[in-house]
Amino acid sequence: MNLAHFEWEFADGKSRAARRVLDLTPEARGILERRCMAAGTDGFLFAGRKRGTPLSDVENGHERVLDESGLAFVLYDFRHTFATRFAEATSGDVGALAAILGHANLRTVMRY
Fold it and tell me: Which segments in the chain show pLDDT lower than 70?
């Protein structure tokens, strides 16, 4: 993440499209700066249990949230919700949505 240049680089991903750089809005940059500089995060957006490590597994936390809230959802639902709301807010800017989601094929985005 290069907050000075308003960029977030995704160097790892299962496809070439997933490996990309996203431009950050000033608002997103501010949120990420505050989160990464928060006490106990060691500069990670999501810190692991062991000091100085990133969070590597969210399943236990996810299960705890489900148990405590009584809700039922999978984490991937957030991606679908984002895609739907982005499409609604941009009057269906499928090209931009494809770029954000890392899809090279517009047909894939149309599923959202």
Answer: 1-2
